[in-house]
## 1
Amino acid sequence: MRSALEGSQAIAKAVSLCRPDVVSAYPITPQTHIVENLSKLVADGNLHTEFVSVESEFSAASVVLGAAAAGARSYTASSSQGILLMSEVLFNIAGMRVPVVMTVANRAVSAPLSIWNDHSDSMAVRDAGWIQLHCTNNQEAVDTSIQAFKISEATELPVMVCMDGFILTHTMEVIDMPEQKLVDDWLPPFDFTRALNPAAPKSIGTLVTPDFFTEVRQAHHTAMQNALEVIARTDSSFAETFGRASGGLLSVEGEEDAKIGILAMGSTIGTLREGHRRHPEAGAAKIITLRCFRPFPAEAIRQAVKGLDHLIVIDRAISPGLGGIVGTEVAAALLGSKNPPRLHNHALGLGGRDIPETTFADLLDSVTKPDTPGFSIFDLIPENLAPEDR
Amino acid sequence: MAQNQSSLRSISDLRNSQPRFCGLESGHRACQGCGEALAARLVMESAGPDVMVANATGCLEVFTTAWPQSSWQVPWIHSLFENAPAIASGMEAAMKAKGKNTKVLAFGGDGSTYDIGFQALSGMLERHHNILYICYDNEAYMNTGVQRSSSTPHAASTTTSPSGKERMGKRHLKKDMLSIIAAHHIPYAASASVAYPADLQRKVRYAMGIEGPTFLVVHSPCPLGWRHESSKTIEVGRRAVECGLFPLVELERGSVANVMPIRNRRPVTDYLEMQGRFGHLFKADDPRAVEERDHLQALADYNVATYGLDGAVADPMDTKGAAKVRRGGGEL
């Protein structure tokens, strides 16, 4: 059914369609509306789940871990400081290979305090061992949330569904909400083979000595790599049932013969699309939407950039002292490939700085300039700070 | 004689013939005389097979596991140091969602209970989950090598509160955890000691029968950390109760419901002198030693007076006494 919904409201509805057994979360801007909407669905009898309203994000992550380990389909959502407070548990969930789905309403990390959007939070837990999927709009966020349960349960890996805070979470969009019956058929109940069960006792989360730790890490890495195929397959399967795909591992659009490509994640893609559509005079370009950031689809990226002279990689977070994170990883993926494009890595839209649609043309322009640095913060306004503070 | 001998069965035969549930098997790596290992075995015996355990990081987690081995005969999960109550909350929510009655137990040492997992525990109690939380209190961070916790008694020497020229061991008081738990007004909270196994098991069975959050703190001597003979674990634990430093009490909805009275109360020195962690309190010619011993005696006297351990105050269960016990304290 198509209706105009706020992003958070749509996510809450999509999660409820997946019939989670346990939901646990702690409110934080800009994730709050998701939790509120889920609470309301429970209060109105439209969602039958154990909703555990906890005292911190740390406990929210722990509750879904305990619940999933006991065989419950479990969901949580957070953002920014909440993700960081959870981080110890996030590594734990992934290391124990327990299926959990979490929405990340992407937001900058303090200090300086900012409630606005960038990707610093999910990037900070990049190496936690979770699958990270980024959504360009709310329809994708809805569809990806449903897919996330299927992916998580098939791979026994936890999944973060990343959506840009405010830009997506607080924006009204016409959403085609899948029918409950179709979701029920497509997503069968969670049957966790390793669930805690008194009839067949298992010890989970034991100490692991150096005799086995390395092999457990390798197994996790292998599972993440194998998840690439599962993520792509799940998107195709979703499209067969619901008539709509969410972009697999990554998707490429724009002129076939374009020599410049722009790679980005999340809602920035929407802005770039609009810039491309409204300003054809800016030039031909391929827009590469990186949906799956972890596991990192290196081979798919190598295929996507074939024939490009320039590749602009946009980062919505930085690693201070290094530069762009996605940019660095793309550079590593292209190492050794034949005739790779010249890489231009830019961070922009940090801490909620608006990304206007003119950015598209400005980015295309920038590649022709000689001596551009490998990495820069593209929308920096140095005059905003006193000279001694720059 | 020959006839008698042939009728004797081996110790393992005797053990195996016991009609009890062994949730924590032998063969684990606990130290000789470990109070916590004994307490956990007693708890599991009484809790029975239809349980699942969330175990905080600590000695109990380490000495019972190391993959691929495990001493646990029940579903058991260890996540982190500070989240066992929240893990248990999730497990309990899962059981509710699935309509199952399996009781969830959460285990932590004093480090995870009194200190790092304190917030998660408070949240678990406030949300009224159907969980029995058991704190195995050995009064320091034993797993990392005997560092002070907020449960370490005043004046005890640990590796982070050592005694020396300027210090007489820990400078602060043992946190009164039971009073904090009581302030959550949960159905049942109690203290127990591994030195009183029948009392401990009765309390476990009672808590298991309650639908809601229950809390048990079990005094569990640690020969390594307290520096007493491994063979004296029970004796040390008993003296802690007999001198009044570790009162055995039961609270219902935050009010004292029952206490184990002390007959023939011992001076605290009977308890302290058995343990190396209090050795500096027995140095001759040190006026500070006398002062600290007196201080600890005063703390024991306070416990005795507060809980009426010598039977001198009115029984709180009688009508006259009940009127005196109300939320927020104070006389009516």
## 2
Amino acid sequence: MLELKGLRRLHIGPIGLTVEAGECVSLSGRSGSGKSIILRAVADLDPHDGEVYLDGQTCSSMPAPQWRRMVTYVAAESGWWEQTVRQHFPVDTDFQLLLPQLGLEPSIADMDVQRLSTGERQRLALLRALGLNSKVLLLDEPTSALDHHSVLLVEALLRQRMDQGVAILLVTHDSEQALRLATRHMRLHQGMLEPIDAEALAGPEAGMEEEGQ
Amino acid sequence: MNTPLLSYADLLFGFLLVLLNSALSFMLNVGVGRSLLVAALRATAQLLLVGLILKFVFGSSSPWLVLAVILVMTLLAAHEVRSRQKKRFTGVWGVGVGAAATAVSMVLVLSYTVVLIVHSEPWWAPQLIIPLVGIVLGSVMNGVGISLNVFNTGLERERNAIEAQLALGADRRQALKFLQRNALRSGLIPIVNQMSAAGVITLPGMMTGQILAGMEPYEAAKYQILVLFLLAAAAGIGALAATTLAVRRATDDRDRLRLDRLS
């Protein structure tokens, strides 16, 4: 179980939120409202006030790398630091098994990252993060660059993880995706988090926001 | 052979060449005629002044004076490193990282040289140590300046790549390793080139000077070889110290990338 208590960063907060194991909570809000700021603070990637708990243990009580291997942030556009795809994964990775899960050709494992499409990189970044078997996933627009078919593959994989007890905090502009994956929905408005029910999320205002992105 | 001393008239004849050069620039509208003259006069004033100061320092027998000269030279080098940075750390770290790396590298290389290689009497003999500091500093400045520049500009450009690693549980040293490696490589390329070209494409300035001053060419070559080794060590140690400090300053103890410390 992930708990945020009094989380503050820049103009955001204080934020309090609980995500149970196996649960997905969606986080929506206008562009620039600070959704990514919250995810980054939970992963302790930026200085912040307040505390985050994982199963009762605080983030500040352990080295940050250890925390991030359990509470893992996946950016909308993740980074790459080596030449080929393969070099970004553990040496014993079975790409034949791994890549088709998200509709990727196993052969791209040996391609240069630079030559892949944004959508391919986005799926690879997710697979890379899933390899850690974290207890919590902080997903920032995980399917923003994907076609419908790939979106469904990603969602199926995430649902599988939730069944295994993984908690997900999902930032998405796609209200339908939020409805498909999450059981609770939050909106970030003027730096504060407010619960929002499924109807309001699917309502006309949410629709407008989607067009605006 | 004893090198004949130069008279001011000799220098004047030399200066005529610069004047000629400058006149050509005016005629062909190259636009550097003026700066050429100013630079030539600046070099003249600076070198004569340094000559006078060194004459005074060489004449005195105070190790403190020698140390003071070394300190001033080091500070000037640190300033030069700082002004070469397109991106630098905020506050005192902006000059501090380069200065500390320069000082560390210089002290290490110099003590090694003085203790193990050239046994001068006394150890601070200005005729030996001041030219040595000068030439070593030039190399440190390059190593530190270039590697810091590559590192600091890379921090912003490679932000996603660095933070992706941190988010996956890498610590700050691991996450910045690829960048540090690039920076070190860039910092060492000049000295590698310099060593490869030495004697074949260029006759290094120091060796030329010693030959002109009457030293046996073979002996001068030996000196030059030693100096090149020292320069390589100085550039390497300087670049390593600078990037190591930069890794620490660019991140905090929670292994976060702190671009807010860069301006």
